[in-house]
Amino acid sequence: WAVTRGMEKGYFARREFSFTLRDDIYVRYQSFERPQDLEKELQKACPYKVDIGAVYSHRPSQHNTLRSGAFQAQEKELVFDVDMTDYDDVRGCCSSAEICSKCWTLMTIAIRILDRALVEDLGVQHRLWVYSGRRGVHCWVCDDTVRKWSSSLRSSIVDYLSLVKGGADTVKKVHLSDPVHPFISKSLRLVEEYFEQYALLGQDILGCRESWDKVLALVPEHILLPGSSCLSLRLGEGLAAVGKSRVRRWGGQEQEIMLQFCFPRLDGNVSKGLNHLLKSPFSVHPKTGRISVPIDIQRLEQFDPFAVPTISSLCRELDEANDEDKDKENEEDPESRRRVRDYKRTSLAPYVRVFECFVEDMERARRGELLRRSDLQGDF
Ligand SMILES: [Zn+2]
């Protein structure tokens, strides 16, 4: 709720929420006068999932009463969605909805590349990275100015951040320009930090004939070793010989290969539209039961999707905490009976702390901005 302090009047009431209720009943255009009203409705309706939408010109709950065209999305966080299923052609360990600690490295790389670009190239400040609860991550960019960005600006940003092009039928999906754009060369430096450990050792992409054929398919014929009757095979042997060390042999080609294997693959449609809804942080994923928790990007390498609390682990922890309370009721000291907020007694607490830090940063920035504006007015 702290986020709404000092905000434009009526802003919260114009925000769309949508609920997924029992039996997949999907209710859009819900809106609430105050955060407390949303809280009450959540307790009453017990939605299976909550999605957050745009801030509209009018209250979403009244959108039916307006003449057509009057109801417009005005503001929305810029959001990004990276989903592991989009990497199926370049991960050997898992497919579709599965993930493991090996391929999770792809999400770590995606976050580092995108987050660096957001801050250094696009100048944004407030990013909240969230684990989706299953096989991907979301990013919410919440700066005041960014929330006002148009759809076409958002599309341009998605284009800027996209490099891997083409669907299942496209073999070679990365083609670098010469000279390489600084965004790409900086991203490549990040990929290089992981490539050997992740791709050469972890995924063992040169480990068998089938997987090196996939790599070889990305190398143009003319740079393969000359004088061989079976070029692909020769290069393959060469690669296997250099084996688990860095691939250095072919000029710029290996850069395109590294990027095809590791560069972030965005679901652009989620980012482009202002009225696209995205699952709220702290939702429970319906398939895994895992909570969609914020990721502390200062400790990104330590984030483990398999250690994230699930709805059943949280219920168990709360039951245990309640049992402890009952034991304490028999004690003399009333201090020991003082209750702390329930979530703080569960393994969700550190993730809530990440969220609180994010909100506190936004509040601090807003206070600074208000102060700066009032100082400016004082000068005139
Ligand atoms: Zn995997």
UniProtKB/TrEMBL annotation:
Keywords: DNA replication, DNA-directed RNA polymerase, Metal-binding, Nucleotidyltransferase, Primosome, Transcription, Transferase, Zinc. Residues 319-340 are annotated as: Disordered. Signal peptide: none annotated. GO terms for molecular function: DNA-directed RNA polymerase activity; metal ion binding. It holds the Pfam family DNA_primase_S. GO terms for biological process: DNA replication initiation; DNA replication, synthesis of primer. It comes from the Eukaryota. Its EC number is 2.7.7.-. Its cofactor is Mn(2+); Mg(2+). The keyword Zinc applies. It catalyses: ssDNA + n NTP = ssDNA/pppN(pN)n-1 hybrid + (n-1) diphosphate. Residues 320-334 have a biased composition (Acidic residues). GO terms for cellular component: alpha DNA polymerase:primase complex. Belongs to the eukaryotic-type primase small subunit family. This is DNA primase. It comes from Crocodylus porosus (Saltwater crocodile).
